[in-house]
Structure formats: C-alpha cells, structure tokens
Amino acid sequence: MIHADLHIHTLATGWDENFEFDMEQLKRHISNCELNAIAVTNHNVFDRSQFDSIRDELSDMCFVLPGIEVSALKTHILVIDNPDNVSRHEASCKQVESKLAGNTKASLSLEELEDCFPYLDECILVPHYQKDPCITQENMSLLGSRITALETSSTNKAIRLAKQGELSYQAVSFTDYRFGIDNAFEKSSRYHPGSVYLATDSSSFGAIRHGLKNGVRYAKDGSTNLEFSPGLTLVQGVNLLLGKRSTGKSFSLDRIKSVCDDKDVYYIKQGELVEKGTEDTFYQELNRRFSRIGRDYLSKWDDLLLKAKANGTKEERLSNIKDYLKRLKSYAETSSKQDCYSSCALYTSEDMTAPSQKDTCELINAVVALLKSEDNADLIESTVGRARLISLLKSLVRRAKREKIEWEQVKLTNKIVHAARQKLKVSAVDEYPQPILEMAFEKELFFRKATMLLEKCWQPKKIADDNFSAYSKYAIIANRRKFSSANEIKNALGKTNTSLAQITKKNAADYLDTLLAIPEDVDLSQGLFSVEVGMVDSKRAKLSGGQRTECVFLGKLHEAYGSSVVLIDEPESSFDNPFLSRSIASKIRDLASNAAVVVATHNQVLGFDLNPEKVFITKYDEVTKQYLMLCGSPHDKALCNGNQEINTAESMLEILEAGFMSYENRKDYYSELGK
C-alpha cells in the first residue's frame, strides 16, 4: 500500500489567510506521516515554478502531483493531473484564474470547468462532501463517473461513511493544511491529520487514481479502525494511554481529536472536572442538563397562558366592557326614533318570496334525456313523437326564462328594501350592540382562577425526585419557588426589553397581568416561577465539593454515550481509588462496548480495573525532540512501533507502580501485614 495526502496548500491566495510557505514543515509532515505521495492543490491557482521546485526538493521523499482546488459547481473540487502533463495543467489553471478573476465568491459552472479542463475525464477529481462548501446531490449527478472520490472533513467521518456503504464513491480525508501558517504539529488547532492508504504498490498517477476509486484504506493494517498516527490505531473498547509527565499523552489525545468531527468525539479534559465541580458552575450545568424537568412542569401552563393572552390584560378587558356599555347607552337613547318608522310598510314588511326554478329545470333535463336516448328512440317516436317533445322543450325553456327574470326582480326588490331599512337605522338609530357581558364575566372568572393557581405555585414545593435512578449514589431533585428578582425573570424569559421593575412585589393578579402585557414573542410560562434542579447524597444532604466533582464525571460519562470516540485525560486526580474502582471503571467499560474509549492515566487501580483491549505508552525522544508511542495488547510481552519495542510488564510497572522495586516493597508490606 501507499500512503497519500492529496490536498496541500503551498501558496496564499485570496481564498486563504496569508502565510509564507515553509518547505521544512512540509518535509516534517511527509516524514512523520510516512507519505509516499502528495498533491499541491492551491486555491484556483497553479504556480509552475514553485511546483517544480517542490517536486525537485522532494524527489527522494515522495511522488508529487500537480493539482488545483477549483471553486466550481458551488463547491470546491480537487483537480489533479499526471505530472507528465504538467504543462497542460498549467495552461488549464491559467484559464481558471482568468474566469474567476480574483472573485472569491464566484464559482465555475460545469461548462466552464469542462472548458478549462477538456481532458477532465483523465484527471483525479475529488469534490468536497460533508465538508464546507459541500457538493449537492444534483451536482454530483452532473459529474457522475468523472468523480474519483469524495473528500470529507475528517478521517473518522470518512470511516463512518465507508461503513454505512451508501455512497457510490470512496470517502477520503486529507489535511487541507497551509504549510507555513504556524507549527502544524504542536501549536496549531487548525492542523487536522488526514491521508489515505491505497491498495497499490505503485506511486504512479494511474495507480493512485485507480486506488482512490477502488482501494481506499484508512489504516496501515488495512482495517477500518481509526488511525490517528501512522501505524497507530484505536480499537473499539478501552484503549489505555500511559506515560510519564510531559511525554505526549495530552498531545496524543489532541491528535486523536483532530482526526474526528466534533460531533463524533467526546473529550473529558484534565482539570475540567474540578472546574465544573465548583458550586455555581455545577448547579448551572445541572440545571442546563436537566432543564427538561422545569420545561415539562411549566408546560402545563401553556394552554392557560394562550387563553389568558387571548382574553387580554385587565386594562383591555375593562376597556371592552366600557365600550359595550357606551354603545348600549347610545342605542337606548336613539331607539325611540325608530317608532316613527314602525307604521311604514317598507320598514315592517317581510321579504318577498322568489319563485322556485327547480321543477322547470328538472323537466327540461328529463325532456333532454328522452331526446338523447338512442336505445328508446323508436318507442318514444311511436308513443309521444319527437316533434311534440321538442315543442314541449321550447315551452319549458320560455317558462324557465320568465322564472329567472321574476327571481332576479324579487332579489333586487328585497335588496332595495334592506338598504332603505339600514339607511333609516343608521340615520336615526344606533345599532344594538352584541351582548358581551356573559363572555366578560367568563374571562374575569378564568383570570381569577389562573391567579389563584399562580399563588399556589409560588409556594415552595419539591416537584421531582428521581430517587437515585440516574446516579446510584445521588438523587436529582427539583424544587419550585417564586422568583426573587426582576433579573431572574428576565433571564428565564430570554429576549425581552419590557421593564419588569418591582414585579416581584406585585400580587399574583398584577404579576400575571404584567407578563401578559409583554409584547415580545417569549415563553411566558418561564416567567411564572422558578424551577431549580439540585442534587443530594444518600443521606439527603447537600453535596460537598468532592461529591460534586464525582457527579460531574458521572454526568459526562452519561453524555458521552452515542459518541464513536471518547477521550478521558487523567481523571484520577479528582477521585479516590475506591470510587475509581467501584463506580468509574465499570461505567467506562459499559461506554466502551459501543465506542473507542481512550483513557490517559497514571493510576494503577484504574489502569487494571479497566481491563483494556489495547495499551499505548508514550515517550519523548530527547535526541529527535519528538514524541514516540508504542502499542499492543496488555497481554503481549512487548509493545511495538515499527522496529522499536519495549517490555510490556516493565513499562507498565514503571508508570503505574513507580517501578519494580516500589511494587515489591508494597507487595511485601501487605503480605507481612496480612500474616
């Protein structure tokens, strides 16, 4: 197999932040990653002179391909050509430059891309997929079989897509790094290791192209395990990471994280547990994690508040009543004027009845049906006669026209009478107002009942208790209480500019009325009262600092479920050995049944109780100034990395037990004490 990284930047363009290319940094990358092939793929430009210089400089290290990262089809596409055709590649790239003209927002169409690269079918073509800017399914279809592979944002994602087996193309991941931007291996969070192994022994263009289409591997051993450094892969289960201080454990964890998407990896960092265990931070995080308790409890008010909002505030309800009484009074004062019209037939007469057209229409339809009937034509002719039916039809049509005219006349007459009545009413008598008092009383009764309910909810009460179901040693409880300040209410409501000054001093009716008057679209239920989530120990006592830290760790292990990679950096500094042995080790083992869990530790209890599937030991080489890592099964006699190996037992004794002599002294002590 050959090892390839085919997305490397060596030139700053308008699509990049400024940097000065560093050849030595690129050489270290090739050497450290043991690469056999790279491609120079700058954004929308190809510098022939620089490419020739890089190829010459690296001639003894790896195969260098000419490429370009083209902005096309609303995505970025790696177009890589055979080094034998570097001149035509240069000419094509100049056309790309000309068409884009430095416009960083422009994107070539398929026709423009084909115009620049008429030999596109002969190239390696790798568009972004599940990597910003991502190619659409429609544009993937347009490119079709010309696509060689699809570039994702991480090795972990590429492996996941490969396992799903839903793509028609191989998924790959490359560094996409600007070599010279800073120290890629120690300081830069932007450096993401990326490369693929190809099932070919040849570093030719054709072999690489074929390998990308049919022979992509993600680890040196050919497995689908996650390789985070050449030859170093994680297994599903517990991966134990051991090493003395400053030998690269944290560096290794960061490297593993960098080959994963954020959503696929969960990282519990050293010191984070103590930080999150401080009282204020702990309870803020606890309320965030279990906020659904409060939401579920307060959601019972949602329908009540919707109805209360529709009923209006106290001011609006009173205004409606006042308006009704005003209109009722006006009607009473003007209704006597109606008497002078009561004797008029126009004012008191009933509506005229329009003649029905139904019978005539039915007869017309029946005669037409008889005339159209071919099967019974002879019978109709001999019995009635077709001429008589036609004469009857004409008479019926004339009648229908008269009835239609009469109907229109009656309709128009009634309309004129109604208009005259309305005019008289408007002129002399106010309209009788629609009664609302019954509805007003119902609204007021509803508001008073809601007020009484709110007063009850202001009384402190425990509303939830999981009785130690989530955490074996600790119970999650939730209590309700009245808000103590306007700021509390504003924080609970979120986005509102409405002044809530002195609201906590108001009675329940005025309090609720103030909330209903908020014009912004906010969840009013959140402002009714506070629901606080807390935690108690087995004695129902408030947690100590150490207990809070334990809960933080247990909570993080719970949150880690569903992640494909879980990183845990030296948790032992916050806990005693019994807790590590009885509580933590078993939960980590459970977590490792569906994930690759990496635990960096110095603790012998945790190290052995975890029963790891794989052991990694880190070392720092003072000569080369580089980190070294050896790995293998904890049951192997030796841990290896290439040609290097170390004794497993001696190495683990040195790190976990402070050496063989220290281990023997403790063993002798406990043995003698036992006698």
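(the above was protein one; protein two follows)
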Amino acid sequence: MARKSRRNKNVEAVSNQIIENCENLIDTGAYIRLSVENGGNETDETLVVQQMLVEKFIEEHPDLKLAGTYIDNGFSGTNFERPGFLKLMEDVRSGKIQCIVVKDLSRFGRDYLETGYYLETILPRLNVRFIAITDDYDSSRKEDRENISVPLKNMVNAMYAKDMSKKILAAKDAQRKKGNITLSKVAFGYVRSEDRHKQIVDEEVAPFVRMIFQWYMMGVSKKKIADRLNLMGIATPGQREKTGVLKVPLEQTKWRTDTVDKILNNPTYVGDIVTGKLKQSLYKGIKQYRTSPEDWNVQRDMHTPMIARDDYEELQERSNKIRKVTRNWHLKYMEDREKYKDCFPGMVRCGDCGRPMYCVRYTHNYKTMEKVGIYYTCSAQNYANNYCGQKIEENLLKILVMDQIQILIKSMCDRKKLLQRLKSDSSEKNAFYEAGAKVRMLERKIAQAEEKNTVLYEDYVGGIVEKEDFDMMKERYIRELQNLRDDLQIAKQDQRMLEKKTDRYMDMVSNLEKYLSDRSFNEALVQELVEYVEIYKDGSIHVCFKCMINLNRYRCVVTDGNGKSVTSSIATLKMGPTITGQPSDYTGVVGGTATMKVTANASGLKYQWYVSKDSGKSWNSLGSDFARASVSFEATEARNGYSYRCVVTDVNGKSVTSNSAKLNVIKKESWELPIM
C-alpha cells in the first residue's frame, strides 16, 4: 500500500506540473494572408500551405498555444483595412491574443511605414510578441528587435507591391485580350461553366430572355414588358442570382424599365463579352475608375448566343433612333421651360388666406401646345371648403415687384456711403488677408511635419536614431501633425466664409447703382433681394425683402391699393456662430491620449474648453492651454467620467456652447479599446 501511495503522489505531481505549464502558455493568433498579387494561383503561397506552416510552428513550440486563426484572402498588403487583420487586432486589444505568428513579414504588410509602426510601437505597447517564421524574426529576442534588416525588408516589400501591381494588371490585360476571362458575374439567363471561363445558357431562364427581345421587337414598350413580367411572377436578375428561384410571389416582383433596358442593351446575348470598362491599381488600394469605350476589349462569339446578331443590331439601331428623338424632345422641352419658367419660385403667397400660390402655364392652342403665358393662383382653390380663387398675371406681378425694388434701391443705394463703409471697415479686409496667410502657413507646417516624419524613419532605418528616441519623436510628430490638420481645416473654413462675404459685398457695390435707371424685370435681382411676395384681392401687394446681403440690414416697404408706400426703419442683424461638428465621447486606456474636437460656422472664431467633474452640474474653464478647436490630453484614472464642452465665440462677441463629451478611461488590464 505504501508503494501505491508513492505512485499516486508521483502521478499527482506530474499532473500538477502539466496543468501549470498549460496555464503559462501564450495565447497565439495565426495570421494568414493571400494577396491580390497572387491572383488565386496555386503556389507555395496559398492559404492552405501558409496555415499548415504557421499552425505546425505553433504546435512545435511548447510555450505557444493556438487561440485563433485569422485569414485574409485576396487582400493587398499595402492596406491594413482587412477584415481578418482588424479582427486579430480587436482580439489583441481585448487580451485574447498575446502573440502573433506569420509566415513572413510580407504576409503581415507591405507598407514599410505602417508595418514598422505596428512592429516597433503598437505591438510592444500592447505587450504582444510577434514572430515571422521564414524571416527568423522573434520580437522576444533583443537582437531581433534591434536588427536593422527588418525595416529594410519592409521597404523592399513596399517596392515589391508597387512593381507587382503594374505587372499583374498588365498580365490581366494580356489574358483578357486572348480571351482567357474569369467570370465573376454572368448575365441573366446564363450560368458559369465549371472552369468559370464560359457562360452556359440557363434553359430555365432563357425562354423569358428571348421573350423580352421578341416583345420589344413587336413594339411593346419597356414599361409594359416590365409590367408583364411582374404579372407573370418572374424573378428579376438580382432575385435570381440571390435566391436561385425563377418564380416569386406577385407582391415581390420588382421588374422596372431600367431592368429591361439593361437586358436589351447587353451584348452578352449575341455571344460577346466586353471587358476593360473598369480599371484599378492594386497598389495602395486605388479605387476603380471607368475607361473610355475605345479602351474596351470586345470578345466576339465567346459563348452560345440567345439572340441573332442581325436582330440585336436592328434593335440597337431602333433604340438609338428612339434615344435621339427623346433627346431632341427633351431639349425642346427644356427650352420651353426656360422660355416660360417660373420667375418667382416658391416666393408668391396669398395675402388673404396665407397659402402659397403656384405657377400655371396656359395655352390657347391645344394642337401645338404653344405656351402663351403664366399666371399665379392660390392653392386654396384645390380645397372645396375653403376656395380662394386668388389669381394674378405674371407680367403684372413683375411690374409691381420691380416698382417696389426701385423704391428700396433709391432709399438705400448711396454709392458714396457704401464706398466709405467698405473703406472704413478695414478689420474685415485684414481678416480676409490674414485668413489666407494663415492657411498658407499651416500648409507649409504640415508639409514640414510630414517631411520630418519620413526623415525620422529613414534615420531610424539607417541607424542614426535610437529606438527610444524614434518612438518618442514619432508620437510627438503624429500629435503635432493632427493638430496642424485640425487647425488647417478651421482656417480654410474661415477663409471660405470671408471670401464669399467679400465677393458678395463687392457685387452689391458695383451693381446696385445701375439698377436705378433700369426698370426692366431682373430675375437675378429679385432672387437676391426678395424673400416673398403677398398678393391681396384688392390689388395691393406686399414685398418682404431679405437681409441686404452683407450689410446685414433689414427694412420693409408697405404699399396700399393706391400705390402709396411707406418704408420702415432699418434693423441690423448680427448672426452668431453655429456649431457644425459636436465633440464625441472618448474611450481609451490609462495613459492614452484623449482628443476632443469641435467645428463651427463663422469667421474670427475663438474657442475655450470647459470641464465638469460632477456630471454637468458645474463647469470650470481649462485655461489658455485649451483655447483651440481641437485639444488633446492624457487619459488618467482621475479623469474617468469627466465631461468636456467648448464655448465658441465669433468676432461680434456672440457665443454658442457645444454638446458635452464624456471621457471613459479603462484600466490597462481590461484593454477594451476600439479598433485602431
């Protein structure tokens, strides 16, 4: 029994040791990426081979435990916005992953600046180990962290990606011209072949495609064809592709004229394939762009046609004639609308009932539909219980409104006073030029900061700058660059507002005087000066004028039925600033950098941030160090739950207060950070 007891103790000790070793294992994420540069070819870079290599490496190392495999299939290494990579970083920040293993550095990324920043700044701060198998790189080894070859390899990978982008696109164009096309999508009535290079007729759908062409050649309109297909319960191309069914319930049918039109104008149905309509650059993730028709590649007789080529060409010729007629009709229609357009859009009201009056174009020749005039009628005539019947001819309304404008101009257009006002108000002129100088200065500073950032990394790669200095200076440059960009955005906004205000002011000075002798109707002048016009049954009108542009002055001219007028006194309007972008809540770990930002719409703005430590009951100014549109400060445990808001003040002393934003600080052990 004693011998058996000792044996049990030995077994128990071994078991405890195994449990202790399992608890000390590092949760490891395997990251696999097959780039768009591979084009899906089965090489040693395939996903399966990468995954086997990485997972075997983790299995052979007793200190590592596979906690998850993260895969990005067909994503370029020059862009870090990849779903698998983003999920990996999310798990890293939540504490699920403490180590990342990749086949080589190029699988992680090919942008040398971004890759270097992750390897040398982000991952070390998160205490995450990084291993590149074939590059023999392990961040847990001090000699690897200080090895200059890693940044050099990142630079080589970036150059490789740029060169590979050009080669791949050239190779694809060559294959396309030879007819070797991989179909990502097929036309309605076709299915892909097994090798995805050909389109095969879908015998279930093909009769309906042929029916669409037959109907149209018989003279049935596209609208009626869509209606017939809806009544038959035929699935649209999108529904067919998504669900695989041909018949759908009548309430789910979605055929439209444009859906029919796309089928009728698709050369696929005569056996042709058109490629090269869209192009893109694989490097840096440049978006697709449309090419001109002469650059398209047309491959004839690539698959079994559904429609005879002669019928299709006849149909296209007919469609071109219809489009030409439609285009000519539309042009004439627009000419007529321009000739008889509404000169008071949304401006005419009924003074008796208060309802809007709308424009009516009338004709005396119903055969030619020649428009001979316009009148305005009260919308109350459409209500049986409250019929108004107020009407006024457009020509009469033009004369009456221009008379009122003449009275207004004569009373306000003193050119000498306007020029004196412009000359004496030098603050606005100075502000305009100062705004331009500020924009140019900030743009220079941003260019200098970006140059500093690049030089810093190159110095680090060259061994001139130590890693600790590089990390410190990199963080400082990034913070400085962000502040400069925020300031530039605000400065450009102020500049644009001053430019608009100055241009409109000068237009007023140069144009008002000539209207004194010109009594003809001027639509532009009406749109600029008139807010609305009220029409009364006794023949009188009331014109409500807008603010006199940049003079910010209002007054009203009231006219009775006998043409007698009286003018009100002038009131000056001073508008305050308007907040266009509110500050947002910030969530981050202890020691992180919290940023609060506000944007406002006005010129000469001043900012002051305030903090509340009691959930908004009281607010205290943060002082001159926080008198900016965008402010940054350290997220500490003591500041957790604080609220921040900004008071924005314009040149006239008018202020507006932003919404409050809350600071949420998380302890480092939780690491519940948003994805970077």
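Reviewer note on protein two: The chain has 17 helices and 31 strands.
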